[in-house]
Amino acid sequence: MIASSNFTSCNFSFLPIRNHSCSRKSQLSPLNYSSNKPRSSFISLVNVINPNDIERATKYLAFLNNYDEKKKKKKGLLQICHNAFYVRTSQDPVLVPLKENGGRSGGSGGDGGGGGDGEERDWTSSFLLFTFWAGVMYYVFFLSPNQTPSIDMYFLGKLLNLKGDDGFQMNEVIVALWYIMGLWPLVYSMLLLPTGRSSKGKIPVWPFLILSCIGGAYGLIPYFVLWRPPAPPIEETELRRWPLNFLESKLTAGITMAAGLAIIIYAGLSSVDVWKEYFQYFRGSKFIHLTSIDFSLLSAFAPFWVYNDMTARKWEGKGYWLLPLSLIPFLGPSLYLLLRPSLSAAPVSQSPTLLDDK
């Protein structure tokens, strides 16, 4: 009994044993507190150990238990810190959506828009478009005819209603051209907001749309150069705010198309002599010449943006027949704007939060 008790009491490291059955010179082995044996086994030594030793052993056992708890807390804290550090510095690959051809799509997506981080953008289309715009601007400032500068200022004053009734009647075709040019910025606003916005380049479209009210296509083409698809997602709440609620309205599209149709009919009903006079002004007047080229440029770029808006709304299957009609100056894009589905019914209108929930 005493021998087994002495063996059990060896769980207490360096405890001096006052009982004669255990030598004072012998030292006990260090405590293995990770052992599965219960530490309360020292109670069995009550009969063979001095009460003072029991008190000291109890204090020692409390110290060991406290040490165990601190070690567990420290280990848990280190583990939490390690996990947090791993999350912040982890080099785990990020899942990128795959294109239909099997390759990984870039951050910006779209044709000619370039990829995300780590991908170089294809600047070919942008460079060609910039070269075209630079050539047009060189023609505007240096090569366009400017034989009647005084007449140009007079025409501009008449069209702005700055001149009184002096008995001179403006050419009907020039008047129709002037008013329909005022509708083109509205048409492009409905085409570019929100489906024509740039995502990665972070170039806002609205400054160029405002500039197009004065400079027409000459101020809008630079945005085409900087544009990087696809457009960022649009939330449902944003569609109910200005200006998207106005630009998405069928009433706005209907009034725009009706006004444009009336202006075109007004010019088309003009006599042959009026058209001949217009062409004479076109060959000599810088103002009429550049305005006519501006109308042609806006008409040429419109079918592309019609197609871009159509694909963003997932309507290319049903609205494909409108693409050839969009080649008709002004009336084609206006008809598309009147018939296109609203963004609230298209998949592009869903916000990232809604997509994640699904």
From TrEMBL:
Keyword field contains Transmembrane: yes
Keyword tRNA-binding on entry: no
Coiled-coil region: none
Organism: Abeliophyllum distichum
Annotated stretches, region: Disordered: 98-119
Biased composition (Gly residues): 103-116
Transmembrane residue ranges: 127-144, 173-193, 205-225, 251-275, 287-307, 319-339
Keywords noted in UniProt: Membrane, Transmembrane, Transmembrane helix
Protein name per the record: Cardiolipin synthase N-terminal domain-containing protein
